[in-house]
Design brief:
The protein has 287 residues and is of the alpha/beta class. The chain folds into 2 domains: 92 residues, Ubiquitin-like (UB roll) (Roll); 128 residues, Cytidine Deaminase, domain 2, CATH 3.40.140. 26% of the residues lie in helices and 31% in strands. It contains 8 helices and 13 strands. Strands 9-8-10-11-12-13 form a 6-stranded mixed beta sheet. A 5-stranded mixed beta sheet has the order 5-6-3-4-7. The chain is flat, with a radius of gyration of 19 Å.
Length: 287
């Protein structure tokens, strides 16, 4: 059984300037006049995932929680199956960006060499750089009947519960968050990033590093549900996905095929339920 971590209550601590935010001056127009204002803007940095000295991917990301990002990316891309297969991990700053330098166990290094590709793209692109259509439609595990049972009220409140974990969003209004929710406990862990895929990778990496079992709870997203978000959810072994916005039609079909309970438009007191209602306590008896 997964043991919940004490909530970090990240909103209680300010985001360090120069790490994930930068304060800039500007002029705001209103009521027919301009006035000076100061704004905190989200930092966006090139982060390279480097394995054995070779770059596998370059992502534009928030320069925070990069150990979590490197581990989560490695897991959701299938480069490793567990964090222990990353034998060494270093975060190295360069004038032009940041490298997450990793050295893998021999069998995983050989497997990576066999599928070597380069992926580079802007924020929000989760399929940049793949070299075949087969990779875009990679098969997902069927999570079967595993997973938590949640009260409908907890799902409806999930995205609001996530709000207290978003200090970077509060400062900049420019980033996404992904959180992990446990039945009866609410959101116990979350990560933020300018990219929604990156935020989920950071969350998955943090959970893996701390030994939290994704199968015991639900992922909560501040974004729409795209194909890549469902893929990451399934590969992490999480059987429930709750989002503030809509899924795409393809993402919905993937969630159904993987046995994921998908709840979207989770705002205020309601949500739309698209798949696997059997994981809702007292839920409707529909397919």
């Amino acid at each position: 059984m997964t043991q919940a971590l004490p909530p970090e209550d990240r909103a209680a601590a300010p985001v360090p300037e120069g790490q994930a935010v930068r304060r800039v001056g500007g002029l705001r127009h209103g009521h027919g006049a301009f006035r000076a204002v100061m704004r905190d803007l989200a930092q966006e940095t090139a982060v390279a995932m480097v394995y054995g000295g070779s770059t596998q991917a370059v992502m534009m990301a928030s320069p925070a929680d990069l150990l979590d990002f490197a581990v989560g990316f490695s897991l959701t891309e299938g480069i490793v199956r567990d964090p222990g297969q990353i034998e060494r991990l270093e975060i190295v700053d360069h004038p032009q960006g940041i490298e997450a330098q990793m050295w893998l166990a021999e069998d995983r290094a050989e497997a990576l060499a066999a599928r070597r590709r380069f992926m580079a793209g802007p924020v929000g692109c989760g399929l940049c750089g793949i070299d075949s259509l087969e990779q875009a439609g990679r098969g997902l595990p069927d999570l079967g009947d595993a997973g938590p049972v949640l009260d409908a009220s907890q799902i409806a409140r999930a995205t609001e519960d996530l709000r207290r974990w978003q200090p970077l969003h509060d400062a900049t209004r420019a980033v996404h968050a992904a959180g992990f929710l446990l039945p009866g406990q609410g959101v116990v862990l979350a990560r933020e990033d300018v990219g929604r895929h990156n935020a989920l990778d950071k969350l998955i990496g943090s959970m893996a590093r701390q030994g939290l079992d994704a199968g015991q709870g639900a992922f909560v997203l501040t974004s729409r549900v795209s194909v890549e978000m469902v893929q990451k959810c399934a590969l992490a072994g999480c059987a429930m996905l709750i989002a503030v916005s809509a899924p795409t039609a393809h993402a919905l079909e993937l969630a159904r095929g993987a046995g994921i309970t998908l709840a979207a438009f989770a705002r205020g007191e309601g949500f739309d339920l698209f798949t696997r209602p059997d994981r809702i306590a007292g839920g409707p008896d529909v397919a």
